[in-house]
Amino acid sequence: MRHKTAALLLLGVSVILAAISLTMGLRLYGEADAAQRPQSTEPAAVTAAPEGPADTPAGPTDTPAPTDTPAPTDTPEPTASPWPGPEVKAQPISAPAEYFADAGFLGNSVLSGLWLYNNDLLLPSDASHWFWQDSLTVMGASPYAAQMAGYDFGKIYIELGINELNYDQNTLREAFNGVIDQLQADHPDAIIYLMSVTPVSAYCDANRSLKQGAVIAFNEMLRDIAREQQVWYLDVYPALCGEDGYLPSDVTPDGVHFSPAHYQHWFDYLMTHYVPDGNDYVTTPAPAEGEEAPAAEDGGQIPPEAPAG
Predict the structure, then answer these.
(1) Helices 260-272 and 109-116 sit at what angle, rounded to 10 degrees?
(2) Per residue in 235-284, pLDDT tens?
(3) DSSP 3-state assignment of 227?
(4) Tell me, what's the pLDDT at 30?
(5) Where do runs of H (alpha helix) occur along 126-259?
(6) How far apart are CA 83 and CA 88, in angstroms?
(7) How buried is 102 (Cβ within 10 angstroms: 0-12 exposed, 13-18 middle, 19+ buried)?
(8) pLDDT band at 192 (very low <50, low <70, confident <90, very high)
(9) Residue 254: partners with Cβ closer than 8 Å, 6 or more residues away
């Protein structure tokens, strides 16, 4: 009985041990199987990143090679239009009447006929536009030019020279330049006309010191002065002389002054030879360089005699 009980106890212990061993083996198998099983391929949940600029890639980027900067060039200074004078070309139409409304006149007794015989009132009739004196020379013209400063002249006509025809040219140039400078300073916007000396008659040429050659030489000097001073030169000489170059004897009482009817040629010349308002210049070429003007027959100071104009 005792031996049977012991055997049963031994058998029970063996069963318990076997069960324990089986449990341990199953646990170890499960852990090994889990270690060898592949991981899940299901994507993990992604949290959306906030919108914004893309990240700048780290690391150096290629820097473009610098281009050559062109060297600055000097901007040329604007050049003034060349002076187109001094000759005034005939216009295709006569000047309108209002053209002379703001004109002033400076000169000697030869000029005075333009006012005295202005029958058709082509030029201003008001004495305030006229500054003349018998026997006036360019050396004595400065006070008259000063009187003109009180008026707003848009054009100024100068007729001087017959009374100082044979004076020293250096003295004459200086005097003319002084008067023109004075007028330009007082009337900076005015068109200034320097008119030629008018012709003398053949009788005057033969019997007085007022020679045709001297007049021509004087006018060449006036043309040069006009060019240098950039004022306009009006060559009225051809409009008043005859075919021989002299003032016709039948239109002059003294070889210098002329009749009212002859002044009409001067009027006509002024009406067709002018610089339009606004300086729309119409000019003829300047005389060719190197041309020699006829020399005056008499030089130096004019002999004492009755003044010419």
Answers:
(1) 90
(2) 999 999 999 999 999 999 999 999 999 999 999 999 999 999 865 443 33
(3) helix
(4) 52
(5) 142-148, 169-186, 202-207, 212-229, 237-240
(6) 12
(7) middle
(8) very high
(9) 204
